[in-house]
Amino acid sequence: MKRFKVTASGRLKRSKANKNHILTKKDPKRKNQLAQATYVADVDEPRIKKMLLMS
């Protein structure tokens, strides 16, 4: 469960991409927004939960 965390309500949290390299051309506002966590899309949630159960 490196990439996903299950919240108390059962939703999946994930971190956003594009925050590892080539950061000089990105605005500070954009980098701050990329640092915040977000939720997995509703469409993808059942598939990811199934994968987490297998591991």
List the main descriptive attributes of the protein structure presented here.
55 residues, 33% helix, elongated, three-stranded antiparallel β-sheet, alpha+beta, 2 helices
Describe, in plain words, how this protein is organized in 3D.
With 55 residues, the protein is α+β, with helices and mostly antiparallel strands. It has one domain. 33% of the residues lie in helices and 15% in strands. It is built from two helices and three strands. The protein has helices at 28-35, 45-54; strands at residues 4-6, 12-14, 38-39. A three-stranded antiparallel beta sheet has the order 1-2-3, with no helix packed on it. The radius of gyration is 14 Å and the shape is elongated.
Stretches where pLDDT falls below 50 for ≥5 residues? none
Largest sheet: 3 strands, antiparallel
- As a percent range, the share of strand residues is 5-15%
For the CA atoms, what is the radius of gyration? Answer: 14 Å
Q: For the record, give the distance between the C-alpha atoms at the N and C termini, rounded to a whole number.
A: 9 Å
Would you tell me the structural class of the helices and strands? alpha+beta
Question: What is the H-and-E element order?
Answer: EEHEH
- Helical content band: 25-40%
Q: If helices are DSSP runs of H or I spanning 4 or more residues, what is the number of helices? A: 2
Number of E-state strands: 3
Quick check: average pLDDT? 94
Shape: elongated
Count the domains: 1
Strands of the largest sheet, in order across it?
1-2-3
